Amino acid sequence: MKKSKLRWLWENMEGYRGLYILGIFGTLLYNVLQLTVPFVTQQIIDLFLSGENAASNLETKRSLFFGLIAAMVLLTLFRVTVVYLDCMIYEKVSQAALYRIRNFLYNKMQRQDMAFYSVYRTGDLMTRLTGDLDAVRHMIAWVVRTIIESFALYSATMIYFFFMNWKLALIMLMMSPIIFGIIFLFKKQVAPKHKLLREKMATLNTAAQENISGNRVVKAFAKEEHEIEKFDQCNSEYSKTNIETSFVWLRFFPFVETVANLMPVILLVIGGLFLINDQLTMGEYAAFSGLIWAIANPMRNMGNVMNEFQRFDAASAKVMELYYAEPKIVDLPGACDIEGRLKGKIEFKNVSFRYEDADIPVLHDISFTAEAGQTIAIMGETGCGKTSLINLIPRFYEPTEGEIYIDGKNIRDYKIQPLRKSIGLATQDVLLYSDTIDGNIAYGDANISADDVRKFAKYSAAEDFISKMPEGYDTIVGERGVGLSGGQKQRISLARALAIKPSILILDDTTSAVDLETEKTIQEGLRHLDFDCTKIIIAQRVSTTKNADLILVLQDGRITEAGTHEQLLSKRGYYYDVVRLQTGEEDI
Ligand code: GTP
Ligand code: MG
Q1: I need a labelling partner for 504 at 20 to 30 A (CA). Which of 160, 307, 380, 588 fits?
Q2: Where are the domains of the chain?
Q3: Maximum C-alpha span of the chain
Q4: From the CA of 392, how far away is ligand 1's center (Å)?
Q5: In this structure, which ligand is nearest to the CA of 354?
Q6: Ligand 1 atom nearest 358 alpha carbon
């Protein structure tokens, strides 16, 4: 992370570095070539227009005259070709580096822990992958090029000036330190503005993204006006910061512009004196005058370059943070693969867990055993830690204390990928991809047959409603597809979890939105799966829990009751109360 930003950029140009250096040489070349026209003009003026023997030279050296003109035309054509190729090189290299970094970042994000996604907001991550990366590309394609261009033009012109008349050149050169001083002060003031600007852009993107994905809530609460105002606020802050950032330059601009504009005046006065005193020829004066822009323009460019450089600085810091982010949950050295299928015995031994950003643990001293093939039901009030508990099994988070074993082996000793592939999970928030129903069900294993997809849909009581759709399994669902009801989505998500034939099936409130009849069908389906699996089912309904081999009641992150339906009823505790409430019976 401590790597310098430019070095990081250089590393990401791998494979294109040679081309980039060629591009830089090209920039040097075409800028030096800018001098050829004024140089040839100077020769023509001195030899054929204003020199002592101008008239006779035009007679005797006619071919030289035309030669010089032809050289001017050819060099101009050559220069245009170099500029053209050079632009292509910068474009190619910058796009290649961008492609590489973008892919790298995306891969990086795929491998991040769940905790990562609760820290970074979607809008912020999207900003890193779009706007920030564009600033990085701009650095390669424009900033570096403009610096080289300015440097080449300025130095070549200065050298040329020194050769023509060192005294006049020296006077011109004396203006440079003033410009550097101004630019230095400018940088100090503008750098924090660019950091702020970048933050405002991320906030703006986050506001837009949250609004778009939450559009149903907005509509339901008729909060459109409020959302528009909220966005307007972010937008106006972004806009204000943008203006403030531009205005920093405006404070320095008059000074730079004055110095730059003084150059022709100085040339006129001092150059004029030199001319009168015969210390400068007319041709030389014309060359000085024709090239004075080549000294003044790089000075003017410095502000823009510094602005863009600071934009790159702020953006690349964000990109690099992601680039070097490492997931905390990784395969331990010596972690083993899973040969064949897991049996599915799960043991929790004194497991406690606290979210990294929280002060108090959400799970305390959890111990239980699920034998292979058993069904475990977890019940408890909302927020008691059920989802947190099941998230520990696929190692989405690590317990802060205690251990979890699967088939007698600590889950930390398995490789993460095969471990997760052995677990079928239907999460509480159902997310379906913009794809066909068939594609969604087969997400975990693209090779399963259409018959199998149908079979898993049947287990999940989804076959009926899917086959009634006009396009059946080929119906596109998800963001832009047909709308599905909450219960329909849950059933597809269950079928998706089953389709990988997991050794462990975890259902987090998966049947909460389906009616009792359908739920019964699902329970039936789950009991007759054609593969062995241990099931952990989080549910609020007694109809789901009562057939479980073990019911765990979780209260404030602790297991307060554990046993079968009958055992818990006789305890007359929380479970008993829930059963009474749900069945409406006074006494059971
Ligand atoms: P329901 O799904 O509503 O039935 O609740 P649950 O039992 O699944 O609760 P869950 O395990 O999701 O949350 C338990 C506690 O952990 C709650 O107090 C949450 O506020 C907290 N919590 C959940 N996720 C996070 C997280 O990512 N970070 C932090 N810091 N706290 C979390
Ligand atoms: Mg939950």
Answers
A1: 380
A2: 5-323, 334-422+534-588, 423-501
A3: 128
A4: 13
A5: 1
A6: 30
Best mutation site among 388, 393, 537 for ligand 1 pocket (most ligand atoms within 8 Å of CB): 388
Does pLDDT of 146 surpass 90? yes
3-class secondary structure, 33? helix
d(CA 414, CA 410): 7
Residue identifier of the C-alpha nearest atom 26 of ligand 1: 355
Given the CA of residue 380, which atom of ligand 1 is nearest to it?
Answer: 7
pLDDT at residue 2 is higher than 60: no
- Residue 473 has phi, psi (to 5 degrees) of -70, -10
Q: Do domains 334-422+534-588 and 423-501 have the same CATH topology?
A: yes
| Domain spanning 423-501: CATH 3.40.50.300 | yes
Cα distance between residue 196 and residue 204, in whole Å:
12
**Per-residue pLDDT for 431 more than 60?**
yes
Instruction: Work out the pLDDT band at 55, boundaries 50, 70, 90.
Output: confident
Is the C-alpha dihedral spanning 32, 34, 38, 39 positive or negative?
Answer: positive
Contact predicate 419/404, CB 8 Å: no
Name the percent of the chain lying above pLDDT 90.
55
Task: Name the strands in the sheet holding 346-353, side by side, starting at the edge strand that comes first in the sequence.
Answer: 363-370, 346-353, 401-406, 409-410
Instruction: Report which ligand 1 atom has the smallest distance to the Cα of 385.
Output: 11
- Into which CATH architecture does domain 5-323 fall? Up-down Bundle (1.20)
Average confidence (pLDDT) over 133-155: 92
Contact 562, 552 (CB under 8 A): yes
CA of 10 to the centre of ligand 1 (A): 43
CA of 114 to the centre of ligand 1 (A): 13
Looking at every residue in the chain, the average pLDDT score rounds to 90
> Strand pairing of 558-563 and 550-555?
antiparallel
Ligand 1 lining (C-beta closer than 6 Å): 118, 355, 357-358, 362, 380, 382-388, 428
Ligand 1 centroid – CA 372 distance (Å): 27
Tens-place pLDDT, residues 287-341: 888 888 888 888 888 888 999 999 999 999 999 999 999 999 999 998 999 888 9
Question: Token pair for residue 34?
Answer: 């800018």
Per-residue pLDDT band for 197 (boundaries 50, 70, 90) equals: very high
Is the pLDDT reported for residue 63 higher than 90? no
- What type of residue is 556? D
Looking at the chain, how many residues does it have? Answer: 588
Q: What share of the chain is helix, strand, coil (3-state, %, to 5)?
A: 65, 10, 25
Ligand 2 center to residue 384 CA distance, Å? 8
Please give the CATH superfamily to which domain 334-422+534-588 belongs: P-loop containing nucleotide triphosphate hydrolases (3.40.50.300)
Q: Which residue has the tokens 């822990």?
A: 113
